[in-house]
Design brief:
The chain is an all-alpha fold. It has one domain (2-153). It is 79% helix and 0% strand.
């Protein structure tokens, strides 16, 4: 019975988490672009942004400290998280540089090329039982790429 309740909670939480993600990712480039107007370097802007993120995450972790699992992180998990952090950091910095150099819509359109890249990488790196790659998924990725190209070349 409790398993059904947790699945129900997850199913109702997912759309709201997705909407919150979309809203935050949609609003942040505008703030980034405005904030970069008076800065000498996007690296300074991304550094300020990361400091704010670390402080916010620190507060959340502190408030949720009773919810943590009380076991050590495996070396393999730690390695994956470190590499993920490196790539997130590089991607964030590149995004801020791109936003400093180009229009927001163009930067975001180019960023959508991550969809087919993720699909391809997931074929090699993730469990195919969790990640189902279907023709419908490829069609969606193709439509995203086509839409991105239209935004980039016909703005």
């Amino acid at each position: 019975m409790s398993q059904e309740v947790s699945v129900s909670i997850q199913e109702t939480t997912l759309p709201w988490a997705g909407i919150a993600t979309a809203l935050c990712w949609s609003i942040s480039p505008i703030f980034i672009r405005k904030g970069l107007e008076d800065l000498s370097s996007p690296l300074l802007g991304v550094t300020v942004g990361m400091i704010v993120n670390v402080m916010a995450y620190g507060v959340i972790l502190y408030l949720r400290r009773d919810k943590w699992q009380r076991r050590p992180i495996s070396r393999e998990s730690l390695n994956w998280q470190i590499w993920a952090g490196v790539f997130v950091g590089l991607a964030t910095w590149a995004r801020w540089v791109a936003l400093d150099l180009s229009e927001v819509a163009v930067v975001l359109a180019i960023g959508r090329f991550n969809v087919p890249i993720v699909i391809i990488l997931s074929l090699f790196m993730l469990d195919q039982k969790q990640e189902r790659i279907t023709a419908r998924l490829w069609l969606g990725a193709a439509l995203i790429v086509i839409g991105s190209l239209l935004l980039i070349f016909y703005r």
